[in-house]
Amino acid sequence: MAKHKKKVAIFDVDGTIFRSSLLIEFVETLIQEGIFKAGTEKIYDKYYRNWLDRKDSYEKYINKVVEAFDKNLKGVKYDDFVKIAREVANFHKDRVYRYTRNLVDELKKKNYFLLAISNSPKIILDEFCKKLGFDKVYGRIYEIDKKEKFTGKTLYTDVISDKAKILQRAIAKENLIIRGSIGVGDTESDVAFLNMVDRPICFNPNKKLWDFARKSGWEIVVERKDVIYNFGTAKH
Q1: What distance in Å separates the CA atoms of residue 133 and residue 116, rounded to the nearest whole number?
Q2: What is the pLDDT of residues 170-227, one digit of tens each?
Q3: Is 104 exposed, middle or buried (0-12, 13-18, 19+ CB in 10 A)?
Q4: Three-state SS annotation for 148-216
Q5: What are the pLDDT digits (tens) for 75-101?
Q6: Where are the domains positioned within the chain?
Q7: What is d(CA 137, CA 142) in angstroms, rounded to the nearest whole number?
Q8: Exposure check for the chain: N or C terminus, fewer CB within 10 A?
Q9: Contacting residues for 146 by C-beta, under 8 A, at least 6 apart
Q10: Signed CA dihedral, 10, 11, 12, 13: sign only
């Protein structure tokens, strides 16, 4: 008997479910615990201040955090990495947006296949998404040598760098259907997979995604303090 196909809902995680970036919190803790060398934060501090003061973009800031992570990963013990990842995920597990948390719960009850995608390390994503009930998690995976230490090399970059490709892969491997599908993202990097789903939702979008969503007639939702604003699908 053929297996019944499920509808799919795909969520970006950082800034869409989690009210920050798991990678940022992870890097900060790795520095505090001495796993990453002291002074690593100097790579991104200036960009953080510029973003905080609204002088420059969040994208430049997060790209510098990625740079700091990549420069310090080589030689880190796998066990230390996993230990810190679990601590960070557990500490931040409830720091989520109400709108997306409730949407995940609603779709889970409707038997959707829940797919999470992020450029944060998969190890921390697995821990964070476990409580939320995601069926599949895609994140960055890193090579480990025979001594159980990271080599600094990122694996499967051709897959994780293309969120639309990830969605196509999941549909094929997990016996899913695109009809009735839902996608939630917050930046222009999510446009590729949002274009594929039946109901694209731009949640707390940056300016580029906001503009694209308005032109495309996509749903825009903004959560600010304890208020959720739904801008519907008005097309200009």
Answers
A1: 10
A2: 999 998 999 999 999 999 999 999 999 999 999 999 999 999 999 999 999 999 988 9
A3: buried
A4: CEEEEEEECHHHHCCHHHHHHHHHHHCCEEEEEEEEEECCHHHHHHHCCCCEEEEECCCHHHHHHHHHH
A5: 999 999 999 999 999 999 999 999 999
A6: 6-230
A7: 15
A8: N
A9: none
A10: negative
b/e sequence 157-182, b meaning 16+ C-beta within 10 Å = eeebeebeebbeebbeeeebeeeebb
> CB-based contacts of 42: which residues, under 8 Å, 6+ apart?
none
pTM: 0.91
DSSP per position, 49-89: HHHHTTSS-HHHHHHHHHHHHHHHHTT-BHHHHHHHHHHHH
- Inter-residue contact 27 to 62 (CB < 8 Å): no
Fold of 6-230: Rossmann fold (3.40.50)
CA distance 74 to 54: 33
Residue type, position 205, single letter: P
* Nearest-10 crossing angle of helices 58-73, 22-32: 50
CB 225 within 8 A of CB 204: no
Provide the sign of the torsion angle of the four alpha carbons 99, 10, 190, 122, taken in this order.
positive
Task: For residue 219, list its beta bridge partners.
Answer: 201
**CA–CA distance, 195 with 183 (Å, rounded to integer):** 9
